[in-house]
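Take a look at the protein record below with the fold in mind.
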Amino acid sequence: MKSLFITGIVSVFILSSCNKDDQKVQAVSLEQQKLDYQARQIDLEKQKLAIEKEKISFEKQKDSLEKVSEEKEAERKAEANRVARKSTPRRSSSSGASSNNSVASNSGSSNNSAGTTATQKKGWSSAAKGTVIGTVGGAAAGAIISKKNPGLGAVIGGVAGGATGYTIGRSEDRKSGRVQK
């Protein structure tokens, strides 16, 4: 009987000690969860700050890029003004009264003349077109005319046709105002 009594007391002590450990583990686990939650909240706040820093640096870069593009645009406009001033035709006063009128009309226009001059100069000039057409036509005619040596006839005809086409096209450019003198 004594052994049964001792076994009962030992089992009561074991069971009671297990319950105390479970309560301690639960209390510790609740505290640990609170700490983990706070650590996650701190990490989230750090990430929010990093995102805000990135936004600020992006805005700074965007502003600096806009400033650079504005400066480049201002340089282009200044260069266009310089080119317009250099390309404005100037005639000597010894050529007569009509040239004085043209100088006055050209000097009065600043940016507008640069825009019209630039658009007017786009594309092939009449001299270039005349040269190409004359060269091709002259080469074809020279090859047809020269029966003994069509290659030599094409070369001679091409040179002669090109020179003639250039001369005619250059005179057209002078009439249209693309080329002065």
In short: Residues 93-118 have pLDDT under 50 and may be disordered. Residues 1 and 7 are 10 Å apart (CA to CA). Residues 124-181 form one domain.
